[in-house]
Amino acid sequence: MRTNYLFSYKSRFIGLGLILLHIPVRLFWEMAYPGLGSHGSPMSPAGSTLFTNEHLFNIVSTILVLVGLFLIAFSKEKIEDEQISQLRLDSLRWAIYLNYLILLCSLIFTTGIDLFDILRLNIWVPLVFFIIRFRWVIFRLNRSLKTDK
Amino acid sequence: MKNNIRVERAIKNITQAELAEQVDVSRQTINSIESNKYVPSALLAMKIARVFNKPVETIFMLEESDDGIKKR
Fold first, then answer.
1. What is the rounded distance in angstroms from the CA atom of residue B55 to the CA atom of residue A29?
2. What pLDDT does A41 receive?
3. Interchain contact B31–A (C-beta under 8 A)
4. A38-62 CB burial, b ≥16 within 10 A, e <16
5. Which domains does chain B have, with CATH numbers?
6. What is the band of B16 on the pLDDT scale with cuts at 50, 70, 90?
7. Which positions in chain A touch B27 (Cβ < 8 Å)?
8. For the purposes of burial, counting CB atoms within 10 Å of the CB of A92, is it exposed (0-12), middle (13-18) or buried (19 or more)?
9. What is the enclosing helix (H) or strand (E) of A27?
10. Which of A5, A19, A93, A119 has the highest CB neighbour count under 10 A?
């Protein structure tokens, strides 16, 4: 069987765990340092904001969520067969379409510093949409199995 | 592409799950193939045919709508 570069089935639960873990961490941070949670302007006049506590926290929480999303999106199904591969590819295509649609629209309708928000949106839109679409088709597949019985 | 897996399964008296296990796919996939929602790869089609000990063409056939073969 050819390799398909997917994570093992169990990594999905690690991914879910990472995302769930991120929520209390984030909430705690927001409560401990109110107002700091939101990104400051990346070109703040008050010198470099690189590697401040806030910056580091944002990096870590973003990585946590991203790794979590990656593990959920690209972990194997219990039985990873050719139909699943096709559904995966389909969902990935839709996610890319949607992502570029949003990207194009936001490039047309925004200027300047809003571009930073576009980047942040761009980070998770493809993955999240892929996960939703993929789960949905698998849910439909399982449902058709039940009705056919 | 049409197929008569359902008939062949009835003849051989095996369930979707049993067939799925023998050809190493999920039961959902066998079900999708039977209800013509998914066209299997050549590899899977041949594996299924082998389970029934029949040539592939007797289990899977082209339909009118598949008629895209260019004649030279």
1. 65
2. 47
3. yes
4. eeeeeeeeeeeeeeeebeebbeebe
5. 2-61 (1.10.260.40)
6. very high
7. 145
8. middle
9. helix A11-32
10. A19
CA distance A90 to chain B (A): 13
* B6: contact with A, CB 8 A cutoff: no
Instruction: Tell me the ipTM for this assembly.
Output: 0.82
Tokens representing residue A97 in the block: 């379409």
Dump the DSSP string for A28-95.
HHHHHSTTTSS---TT-SSS--TTSHHHHHHHHHHHHHHHHHHHHHTBPPSS--HHHHHHHHHHHHHH
Degrees, nearest 5: CA angle B32-B33-B39: 110
Residues of B in contact with A77 (CB under 8 A): 26
Cβ-contact A140, A148 below 8 angstroms: no
Q: CB-CB: which of B31, B37, B44 is closest to A82? A: B44
CA–CA gap between residue B49 and residue B4 (Å, rounded): 11
- Give the residue with greater pLDDT, A6 vs A3: A6
Residue A125: how many other CB atoms lie within 10 Å: 18
Q: Read off the pTM.
A: 0.81
Q: Is A86 part of the contact surface with chain B (CB cutoff 8 Å)?
A: yes
- Whole-number percent of chain A with pLDDT over 70: 84
